[in-house]
Write a structure and sequence with these properties.
It is a single chain. The protein is globular, with a radius of gyration of 24 Å. The chain has a two-stranded antiparallel sheet. It has 19 helices and 2 strands. α2 runs parallel beside α5 (117-132). By secondary structure, the chain is mainly α. It has 3 domains: 1-255, no CATH class; 301-477, no CATH class; 482-553. It has helices at 2-38, 40-69, 78-85, 88-106, 117-132, 135-143, 147-171, 176-207, 252-272, 274-281, 287-300, 302-322, 334-374, 381-410, 413-441, 444-468, 484-504, 509-530, 532-552, and strands at 214-218, 224-228.
C-alpha cells in the first residue's frame, strides 16, 4: 500500500498548494477590497473576532476526531467510525452556544461594535454546525484517497463565499457583517450538500456493476491496491445504519485516542491562535490596529499557509499509514521505516530552505511588498517591522509544522498525554511572553511571543523524534541543517540586498527588485546543485510514471 499512500500524499500536497495559492490570492484581493470600502476597523472585527470564533468552534469540535479516525484507516470498523464522528454534531452545538454567548455578552471592548455583529456571530456558529454534518464523508474521502474532491469543493466554497460577500458589501458597505454572515451560511450549506450529492452518485455508479464494488487505485509500480468501499447507500453515512460486526457501538481505542487529541487540541489552539485570543480577550489594540496587524499577518504568512500547511496535512496522513504508533521503529517493517525517515528528512530540509529564503529576502523586500500591496499607507515603519518579524516566525512555523506533524502522527496515547502536560507549560510561557512583549514593543510583541511558542514546540517535537530514532541508523532531523553552498549564497544575498535597500529603495525600486531577482536565482541554483540527487530522483519517478501511463494507453 505504501506507494499509493506516498503518491496520494504527494498529490494531496500538490493539489492543496494550488488551492492554498488560490485561497490566499482571493483573501489578498478581498482584504484590499474590504479596507478600501469599509475600513480597517471592520476588517479587524472580521479577521480577528469572527474568524477566531469559527476557528475555536471547528478546531475543538472537529480536529480531535479527524486525527484519531485517520489513524490506520485500513483496519477501521466503519460502523463504529460513523457513530463516533456523528458525536461531533452535538459537541459542535454545545461549543457554538458557549462561544457564541461569550463573544456576545462576556468579551469587553472600549469601542462600539459594528452593525449586525450579533447576526454575524450566530451565523458563524450555525455554519460550523452545518459543516459538521458532513464530517464523516470528509473522512471517507480522505481514507479512500479522493484527493481531487476535497480540493475542488474547498475551491468552490471559497469562490461561492466570495461571490456572495462582495456584491452585498459593494452596494451596502455599512452592512459588511451582515454580508459576512450570509456568505458563511451559503458556503457551509453548499459544502455540506456537495459532499452528500457526490457520494450519492458515486455509490449509485458502483451499484450498477457489482464487479466494480472494489475500488482499485493504480500506483507507480503498476500494482493495485484493493480496498473495500463499505457504503452501499447514502443512508449508511448516518449513525447506526451501517452493519456493525462488533457489539460495541463505539471503538474504545478511538475514543481514548480522540480524548487525548481533544485535551491536546485545547492547548494547541491556545498556542496557534494566541495573538488573536489576547487581542480579543484583552483589548490592547483598537479594531483599526487589529485590522492593520491582520493585513500584515496574512500577507506575511503566505508561504506558511499555501506551502507549509498542505505539506503538514499530507505528511500527517502519510506517517499515520506508514508508522505504527505502539511499536518501536526497530520492530516495524524496515522498508517502511527507511522510507518514512527519508521522507521526514526531505520534508525538514524543504521547509527549512523555504523558511531561510523568506527570512533573508524578507528583511530587504518587506517594504517593497507592502508598498505594492497597499501603497504608502502600508509601507510605514510599523507594518515594515511587523513584516520583517513575520519572516522569522515563518521559518520557525515551517520547522514546527513538520516536526509536530510527525510527532502527532506516530506517538502513542501515553506519549500524547505526556505531551499535553508539557503543552500546558508551553501555553503559559507563550501567553505570558506575548503579553509582556506587546506591553513593551506594541503589536510586534505578538509575533515575538509566537516565536517563543514555536521554539518551545520545536524543542519538544525534536526530542521525541530523536528518541524515536535513537536506536536506529536514521537521523531525519539532519535535514534541518542547511548545506554549506546554500548557506553561503544566503549570506551573500542578505548582505547585497540590504545594501541595495539602503541605496536604491524607494527611489529606484526596479533596480532594487532586479538585484533581488538575481540573488534569488543564485540561491535557487545553489540549492538545486546540493540537492541534485533529490531532484534527479523526483525526475526519474516522474518520467517512469509517464512512460507507464503511455504504455497503458
Amino acid at each position: 500500500m505504501s506507494p499509493n499512500i506516498l503518491k496520494s500524499s504527494l498529490q494531496n500536497a500538490s493539489f492543496n498548494i494550488v488551492f492554498q495559492i488560490f485561497c490566499r490570492a482571493v483573501t489578498f484581493v478581498l482584504n484590499v477590497f474590504v479596507v478600501r470600502h469599509v475600513g480597517q476597523a471592520i476588517l479587524g472585527v472580521i479577521n480577528v473576532r469572527l474568524l477566531l470564533l469559527e476557528s475555536m468552534i471547528l478546531f475543538l469540535s472537529r480536529e480531535p476526531f479527524m486525527k484519531a479516525c485517520l489513524t490506520n484507516t485500513a483496519e477501521h470498523n466503519w460502523a463504529q467510525v460513523v457513530n463516533i464522528l456523528w458525536l461531533t454534531v452535538p459537541i459542535c452545538i454545545i461549543m457554538s452556544t458557549i462561544f457564541g454567548y461569550i463573544w456576545l455578552f462576556v468579551l469587553s471592548t472600549t469601542e462600539v461594535l459594528p452593525p449586525y455583529y450579533t447576526f454575524a456571530v450566530w451565523a458563524v456558529a450555525l455554519s460550523c454546525i452545518i459543516e459538521m454534518t458532513s464530517l464523516i464523508i470528509e473522512l471517507v474521502a480522505s481514507a479512500f484517497l479522493f484527493v481531487r474532491l476535497k480540493v475542488i469543493l474547498d475551491t468552490l466554497r471559497i469562490a461561492i463565499r466570495t461571490l456572495t460577500f462582495v456584491p452585498l458589501i459593494l452596494y451596502h458597505p455599512e452592512n459588511a457583517l451582515f454580508a459576512f454572515g450570509i456568505a458563511q451560511l451559503v458556503a457551509a450549506i453548499f459544502y455540506t450538500l456537495s459532499h452528500y450529492i457526490y457520494f450519492h452518485y458515486y455509490i449509485k455508479k458502483l451499484g450498477r456493476d457489482k464487479h466494480k464494488r472494489r475500488m482499485s487505485i493504480k500506483d507507480k509500480s503498476n500494482e493495485y491496491v484493493v480496498r473495500e468501499f463499505p457504503f452501499q447507500t447514502i443512508k449508511q453515512f448516518l449513525p447506526g445504519q451501517l452493519k456493525n460486526d462488533s457489539e460495541a457501538f463505539l471503538d474504545n481505542k478511538l475514543k481514548l485516542l480522540t480524548w487525548s487529541f481533544f485535551k491536546q487540541g485545547i492547548l494547541k489552539q491556545i498556542l496557534t491562535e494566541g495573538e488573536r485570543l489576547i487581542m480579543t480577550v484583552v483589548p490592547l489594540l483598537t479594531f483599526t490596529e487589529q485590522g492593520t496587524y491582520e493585513v500584515v499577518n496574512n500577507l506575511g504568512s503566505l508561504a506558511a499557509r499555501f506551502v507549509f500547511r498542505p505539506i503538514e496535512d499530507s505528511g500527517y496522513f502519510y506517517f499515520t499509514q506508514m508508522v505504527e504508533r505502539d511499536k518501536p521503529v526497530n520492530s516495524q517493517d524496515l522498508r517502511r521505516v527507511e522510507e518514512s525517515a527519508n521522507v521526514l528528512k526531505h520534508m525538514c530540509s524543504t521547509v527549512t530552505s523555504i523558511g531561510l529564503i523568506v527570512l533573508v529576502f524578507g528583511q530587504s523586500y518587506a517594504s517593497t511588498l507592502l508598498w505594492l500591496y497597499g501603497g504608502t499607507t502600508f509601507s510605514t515603519d510599523l507594518p515594515i517591522l511587523l513584516m520583517r518579524a513575520h519572516c522569522l516566525a515563518i521559518l520557525l512555523l515551517g520547522i514546527n509544522g513538520v516536526t509536530e506533524c510527525y510527532t502527532n502522527a506516530t506517538a502513542d496515547r501515553a506519549t500524547i498525554n505526556r505531551s499535553n502536560v508539557i503543552m500546558v507549560y508551553e501555553s503559559v510561557a507563550f501567553l505570558g511572553a506575548s503579553y509582556l512583549f506587546v506591553t513593551w514593543f506594541g503589536p510586534v510583541g505578538f509575533i515575538l511571543g509566537n516565536c517563543v511558542n514555536m521554539i518551545l514546540r520545536i524543542m519538544h517535537s525534536s526530542s521525541f523524534i530523536n528518541k524515536r530514532y535513537g536506536d536506529s541508523l536514521y537521523r531525519p532531523l539532519k535535514g534541518l541543517v542547511p548545506k554549506p553552498m546554500f548557506s553561503a549564497a544566503l549570506f551573500a544575498s542578505a548582505l547585497i540586498t540590504n545594501l541595495s535597500h539602503v541605496y536604491f529603495f524607494p527611489e529606484s525600486k526596479l533596480i532594487h527588485l532586479l538585484i533581488g531577482l538575481i540573488m534569488f536565482i543564485l540561491v535557487i541554483v545553489c540549492w538545486i546543485y546540493e540537492h541534485y540527487d533529490l531532484i534527479q530522483l523526483c525526475g526519474n519517478k516522474w518520467y517512469e510514471q509517464r512512460g507507464k501511463q503511455k504504455k497503458t494507453k
